[in-house]
Write a structure and sequence with these properties.
Blueprint (H helix, E strand, L loop, with lengths): L6 H15 L15 H7 L12 E14 L2 E8 L2 E8 H4 L1 H10 L5 E10 L5 E4 L2 E6 L15 H6 L1 H7 L1 H23 L3 E2 L5 E2 L11 E4 L4 E5 L4 H9 L4 E9 L11 E10 L3 H20 L3 E4 L2 E4 L5 E4 H9 L9 H10 L10 H13 L7 E7 L15 E9 L2 E8 L4 H16 L10 H8 L5 E7 H9 L20
Parallel strand pairs: 3-5, 7-11, 15-16
Antiparallel strand pairs: 1-2, 1-4, 2-3, 4-5, 4-6, 8-10, 9-10, 11-12, 12-19, 13-14, 16-17, 17-18, 18-19
Helix pairs in contact: 6-7, 7-9, 7-15, 10-12, 11-12, 13-14
The structure holds one RNA strand of 76 nucleotides.
RNA sequence: GAGCCGUUAGCUCAGCCGGCAGAGCACCUGCCUUUUAAGCAGGGUGUCGCGCGUUCGAAUCGCGCACGGCUCACCA
């Protein structure tokens, strides 16, 4: 701890030392608190003028402002419920305690204030302090009171500072928690059972992504952090839980962008005896429920767009949508080379060695996704990019799958689940060939999952949704880092 | 992974055709008993991200590196 202190840090340590010399513990073990700031404010309801309450309140919080006027001082404290003004004066506190407060208590200190409540001349509810006690000394200055903390890097690395000084950031994370609660309410009310499945998995699966790899020493076993919950939740459907869901963290060892973080929160649910049409209806109903519950409206603003979440949402066949936006009929190009040429012909920038599935993905994300502002389900995807979805009856090329898009972002992905164990095995084998050909994101053969399927899985509709992206949408944030409390950053360089 | 932009006081930001490092808030000293971005008088507290180079002289110009942001690539 030989780090050089700034003048302000030295000043605060000096104040702390002076408190100790006065016999005051700057970090006491106990404190008295009878009201939150919000609760204290309510006590003044119905009182007129500057009349004070008979009741003495003990409130506690971080001192966010301090305006000294000689023998009297106004300031605000902030706790989790809000802000409250206090009034300190020699008259009410006595000279010794008042001067100690005035000289040794700094902005950012956690303090307790006790006294009756009254309104000032300007009508602001205020605690008339009879005593002010130190609850925890703050040894570093807070960011500036007016402009707050703007430096994005500091906001993410020291999120606690962001939360202290930027009220809108606080609200985003409160909203995020309410969104998750509303999702649980919705699913619980419909008989879904919330479960927990392994994060450390011997074989990763359920999505196309590169995994994080770890190792169990005692078992001498390589393990993967899950990239999805899918294959475990389906095992539970086999096991007879007809409606299950999980909300938790997935990990994907891929690039970081405004809508990608290496770990992100996912909701997946599976419903036996349902298909993707049932899931589509449930999805639009669920999102509408959450918006209504959390925001009180189905009409939201996202960036420059006004979005109406009212069901039913538009359904567009993927093939038809691609034709409309690009003029390319993917059915007319049954292999990668011909589709590649067609995309190049319209000026598309794609990898020459991409598979047909990757090319179709590129068409979706480059030409469709940015235009899908109002809630839209793209339906009926090619089988080669959907190795866990059931084929459409009468088609060997398409599966019963949809993705939901809102505000130009993919929000969710769902399908009628493939429950034919032999077909599933063939799909794994195809994926294995793709992996051997260099596609690191291809699915791996999961024998144990195939065994589960072979006992018979009911017809099932399944669903996955990124909670982070839904939160971006409902809080009107343009970066996933704004809705993740501690987004991933490189280590701070040694200075 | 590539391109562009950024990094100056605790915070928010000026300064950038090379010439003594600046403002507001915060902080320090003094005054002030109803203020609320309190006010008045005084005080600049700094490894100009790091390193190398050009130059009589670098926050400023050049090269390299680090971290961050945006765009692209990647991400079903």
């Amino acid at each position: 701890m030989s780090k050089r202190l700034t003048e302000q840090e030295e000043q605060r340590r000096l104040h702390m030392e002076q408190l100790r010399q006065a016999g005051i513990d700057p970090y006491p073990a106990r404190c008295t608190r009878t009201h939150t700031c919000a609760e204290a404010l309510q006590l003044l309801e119905g009182l007129d003028g500057e009349e004070a309450t008979a009741e003495i309140v003990h409130v506690a919080g971080r001192m966010m402002s301090k305006r000294v006027m000689g023998k009297a001082t106004f300031g605000h404290i902030q706790d989790g419920s809000g802000r409250l003004q206090f009034y300190a004066s020699v008259d009410n506190m006595g000279e010794e305690e008042y001067n100690r407060f005035r000289k040794l208590f700094d902005l950012g200190d956690i303090i307790g204030v006790a006294g009756p409540l009254f309104r000032t001349r300007t009508g602001e509810p205020t605690v008339r302090a009879q005593s002010i006690t130190m609850l925890a000394k703050s040894l570093r200055p807070l960011p500036e009171k007016w402009h707050g903390l703007k430096d994005v890097e500091l906001r993410y690395r020291q999120r606690y500072l962001d939360l202290i000084v930027n009220e809108d950031v606080r609200q985003v994370f409160i909203t995020r928690t309410r969104i998750v609660s509303a999702l649980r309410e919705f699913l619980d009310a419909r008989g879904f059972l919330e479960v927990e499945t392994p994060i450390l998995q011997p074989i990763y699966g359920g999505a196309a992504a590169r995994p994080f790899i770890t190792y169990h020493n005692e078992l001498e076993q390589q393990l993967y952090l899950r990239i999805s919950f899918e294959l475990y939740l389906k095992r539970l459907i086999v096991g007879g839980f007809d409606k299950v869901y999980e909300i938790g963290r997935d990990f994907r060892n891929e690039g970081i962008s405004f809508k990608h973080n290496p770990e992100f929160t996912q909701l997946e649910f599976y419903q036996a005896y349902a298909d993707y049409n049932d899931v589509m209806r449930l999805t639009e109903e669920m999102i509408a429920y959450v918006a209504q519950k959390v925001l009180g409206t189905l009409r939201i603003t996202y960036g420059e767009h006004e979005i109406d979440l009212t069901p039913p949402w538009r359904r567009r066949e993927l093939r038809q949508a691609i034709i409309e936006e690009t003029g390319i009929d993917i059915e007319a190009y049954p292999d990668a080379p011909s589709l590649y040429q067609a995309i190049r012909a319209i000026g598309g920038n794609v990898e020459p060695k991409a598979t047909r599935g990757k090319l179709i993905d590129a068409l979706i994300s480059n030409y469709l996704e940015p235009k899908l502002i109002q809630p839209t389900f793209l339906i009926d995807y090619p089988v080669e990019i959907s190795p866990l979805a059931k084929r459409k009856p009468g088609s060997d090329r398409l599966v019963e799958r949809f993705e939901g898009f809102i505000g130009g972002m993919e929000i969710c992905n769902a399908f009628t689940e493939l429950n034919d164990p032999d077909d599933q095995e063939q799909r794994f084998l195809e994926q294995g060939r793709a992996y051997d050909a260099g596609d690191e994101e291809a699915h791996r053969m999961d024998e144990d999952f195939l065994t589960a399927l072979s006992y018979g899985m009911p017809p099932t509709g399944g669903f996955g949704m990124g909670i982070d992206r839904l939160t971006m949408l409902l809080t009107n944030r343009d970066s996933i880092r704004e809705v993740i409390l501690f987004p991933h950053l490189r280590p701070r360089p040694a200075s």
